[in-house]
Design a protein that fits this description.
This protein has 2 helices and 8 strands, in the order αβββββαβββ.
């Protein structure tokens, strides 16, 4: 399973690197780790600034998709929101964001568990879909004018009946336009 995750991430990076420069403004692709035993997965996001302040800080929109496959449990998040960013040094930028969206968690016990549930006439589908609020931020190091490396820490908060929150840490390769 880990080899498959590596191949998916490598393929995504290859496809993104072949995109024209005009389409690369704020595209992030990375390896992500979800807390509470959510496991490792991947994150893809795209952001584009819509306003620059006098201080050089920028305000923009962000859209994000992340998926965490597991042997018995998987999590999918799709959300959008607002991201603020600015300079923290010559090659270092800070970012902070707030997003809302959808959270889908699915339990899959595999064939053996499914067969046992059928024999015992039990409903073993533990899937849950609901709203999600995520607050987070990070830092991005400029590798060169068109790419960077981002470290990001987020706090996803499930707004479903059961609620709950967790943490998510992501290391992403970022393709961008310009030198910011």
């Amino acid at each position: 399973m880990l080899k498959l995750k590596g191949l998916v991430l490598a393929g995504a990076l290859f496809v993104a690197s072949a995109m024209p420069a005009a389409a690369q403004d704020g595209l992030g692709l990375g390896l992500s780790f979800l807390g509470d035993e959510g496991g490792a997965g991947f994150l893809v996001d795209y952001s584009q600034p819509f306003k620059t302040q006098n201080t050089g800080a920028r305000l923009g929109w962000v859209g994000e998709f992340s998926y965490f496959p597991g042997d018995f449990f998987s999590t999918l998040m799709a959300q959008g929101g607002v991201r603020a960013s600015g300079r923290a040094g010559e090659k270092l930028n800070w970012l902070a964001h707030g997003m809302v969206g959808m959270l889908r968690q699915s339990a899959d016990g595999g064939d053996i568990v499914d067969d046992l549930c059928d024999v015992l006439d039990l409903d073993c589908d533990a899937s849950n879909t609901g709203a999600l609020l995520t607050i987070g931020g990070g830092v991005e190091y400029a590798i060169n004018e068109k790419s960077g490396l981002r470290g990001q820490l987020d706090f996803p908060i499930a707004l479903t009946d059961g609620g709950g929150n967790t943490t998510r840490f992501t290391i992403a390769y970022v393709l961008k336009m310009g030198g910011n």
